[in-house]
Amino acid sequence: MQERTYLKWYNKLGYGSGDIAGNVVYAFLSSFVMIYLTNTVGLNPGVVGTLIAASKVFDGVTDIFFGAMIDKTKSRMGKARPWMLYGYIGCAVTLAAIFAIPADLGKTAQYAWFFIAYTMLNAVFYTANNIAYSALTTLVTKNSKERVQMGSCRFIFAFATSLLIQSVTIGAVSALGGGASGWRTVAVIYALTGLIVNTLSVLSVKELPEEELREAAPGLTGSGEQAGSEAAGKTEEKYGLADAAKLLIANKYYLMICGVYILQQIYSAMLGMGIYYMTYVLGNENLFGVFSWAINIPIIVALLATPALVARWKGMYKLNLRGYMLGTAGRALVVVAGYLGNLPLMLLFTGVAALGQGPWQGDMNAVIASCSEYTWLTKHKRVDGTMYSCTSLGVKLGGGLGTAIAGWMLAAGGFVEAAAVQPESCIRMLYFMYLWLPMIISFLITLILSRMNVEGANEKLRSAA
Asked: CA angle 91-79-56, nearest 5°?
């Protein structure tokens, strides 16, 4: 039987545009915060890395907390949309604050300013906004194909925004006066842009009534539907933060997705540190934008094809696994091309790797929705908002750790702030950070994806019901 459709094309487009706002924060922060702090403010990368790692202590608590709060929210706007709307106001303010560290402050005060603004952005405001945004995939439609389409649309906007930010930011900072004032102005422009787009995205969709969300999961028929209806009554049971955490930990696919998400964001952070590789190894900081095109355009192409490929291969598992196998092979060839000093081949194989990794970006939210359904089928509890805590947890923990690790590696390599030429030890470290580490991470993700057949597990549970 054909699944009911819930969304028009403009709902999917409006929802997807919300990741313009998300990546105004994430792409700007992950790609440029370290080089701003080291080369403009003059802070030590090792100390910055330590502060970022310390900030992650708060994130582990707030992800599940805000997920549980979303699950319990009842308003005329629904469960998730109020958190998405109001959370971004704080995102805009704290993003601008990070790139507006006063030059006349002492070093200790500058470190404190950064730590407070960075922690508030990630642990509070971005958490509330991003978990709510991701949870909408489950709350506005029960159609699995529409969820894949929403994910593809979302990440097309995400990677297009990343491409734009990575391509124009360095030039924009220079055009707006350079130095601290240039960074501050660009940050304000990005924050205001994100605030406007996020508001429009919130207003573009409408959450389904709770009664409809509590109906039997799609695909249940016969005795399974009856069991789902009986279980629906149990969803009203109260459960606290500890109970929500237990439900997540009991779901092995949630843990796998968290692992993949964290590794993926560390991977992205390493590629974001490519600004150092382009500046000090290839000798041209503008190549960072060129490599951004080689990464983001193939991903956008893969995202456009993902819904059709999911339908052709009758699911997401094989597509994601085979895609990442190609991605890992592509990154291995980037390593070879890098040591050969062949720039065209580096760009080519960078594109091949991105093409293979693209489908996971497009259907990731749909996989998480299937993961949420797995908890429903096994525990008879709806924890949609809490389940999507893995998205915020992955972005913040993975991205933050990636930036922190990069700072520690730069310090260990002997990086000299604002120096035109770096020591040989730093150059060797940049080779490892930009060439070897992304390949290793891609291989680890492939291993995890080989075990993540949540669709098959759900099908078996339905058949047994």
From this structure: 40
- Express each pLDDT in 159-177 by its tens digit: 889 889 989 999 999 999 9
Closest C-alpha among 358, 313, 12, 416 to residue 162: 358
Q: What pLDDT, on the 0 to 100 scale, is given for residue 96?
A: 97
Which of 183, 180, 161, 163 lies closest to 172 in space, CA to CA? 183
Contact 353, 194 (CB under 8 A): no
Cβ count within 10 A of residue 225: 16
Of all residues in the chain, what percent carry a pLDDT higher than 90?
Answer: 53
Question: CB–CB of 63/392 below 8 Å?
Answer: yes
Tell me the backbone φ, ψ of residue 419, rounded to 5 degrees. -75, 145
Q: How confident is the model at residue 47 (pLDDT cuts 50, 70, 90)?
A: very high
- Residue 312 CB burial class (10 angstroms; 0-12, 13-18, ≥19): exposed
Please give the CATH topology (third level) of the domain spanning 9-464: Growth Hormone; Chain: A; (1.20.1250)
Buried/exposed code over 133-153 (b: 16+ C-beta within 10 A; e: otherwise): bbbbbbbbbbbbebbbbbbbb
CA–CA dist 411, 424 (Å, integer): 13
In 3-state terms, what secondary structure has residue 212?
A: helix
Please state the domain extents for the chain.
Answer: 9-464
If you write DSSP's letter for every residue of 214-275 in order, what string do you get? TSPPTT--THHHHHHHHHHGGGGS---HHHHHHHHHT-HHHHHHHHHHHHHHHHHHHHHTHH
Under 8 Å between Cβ of 26 and 399: yes
Find out whether 410 and 46 touch, Cβ atoms under 8 Å: yes
Whether 366 and 146 have beta carbons less than 8 Å apart is answered as no
CB 85 within 8 A of CB 18: no
